[in-house]
Specification:
This protein has 174 residues and is an all-alpha fold. It has helices at 2-25, 28-40, 54-66, 77-83, 90-124, 128-166. 75% of the residues lie in helices and 0% in strands. Helix 5 runs antiparallel to helix 6 (128-166).
Length: 174
């Protein structure tokens, strides 16, 4: 029983330490730079006070959604890089590029499938013209989503190449 309690205590301490790492890594200056960058891009994080509060996290989520990043409101390397606050490593750029393609093609494929499904329903009911329109809309919107993701992927890949060539992957800019 004693050994079990020691392991449990050690696990709790480790979990608390790991949870604290992101908070410690987000200095007052970094959060202030993020808040200013969000304001400059038209997102309202509240006052530029260096505190990562609810308004900052909400603005971050909106920005992340617009940029096709994981919308979690956290100051991860991809978000910091996208805002121009800190440059991510080449590997992070390439990983983000792959995620851009994966996510956009998945969403685009779903949209195309939905258009095809609507077309089938329309044609089954004898509405060939309406079915063709639904199919065309599904294809158009799906390919547009894929195009946006591909553009983001190309941008991230370019950043990765630049960071790899210049060796400027750990520099913080403000």
């Amino acid at each position: 029983m004693y050994l079990y309690m020691r392991k449990l205590l050690a696990s709790c301490i480790l979990a608390a330490a790991l949870a604290a790492i992101p908070a410690l890594a987000q200095s007052h200056d970094t959060v202030s730079a993020v808040q200013q960058a969000l304001k400059n891009k038209g997102f309202d994080p509240g006052p530029v006070d260096g505190k990562n509060g609810p308004a900052t996290r909400a603005a971050l989520k909106k920005y992340q959604e617009q940029q096709h990043l994981t919308a979690d409101g956290r100051l991860g390397p991809k978000t910091l890089d996208s805002l121009g606050v800190r440059t991510a490593s080449p590997a992070a750029h390439f990983k983000a590029s792959g995620e851009n393609v994966k996510n956009s093609y998945s969403k685009g494929g779903d949209t195309i499938a939905n258009g095809t499904k609507n077309m089938t329903t329309q044609m089954k009911d004898g509405h060939v013209g309406a079915g063709t329109v639904d199919f065309g809309k599904g294809i158009g919107k799906g390919v547009a989503k894929m195009g946006v993701g591909t553009a983001h992927a190309a941008k991230n890949a370019g950043k990765g190449v630049k960071a790899a060539v210049t060796g400027d992957s750990k520099k913080t800019s403000q």
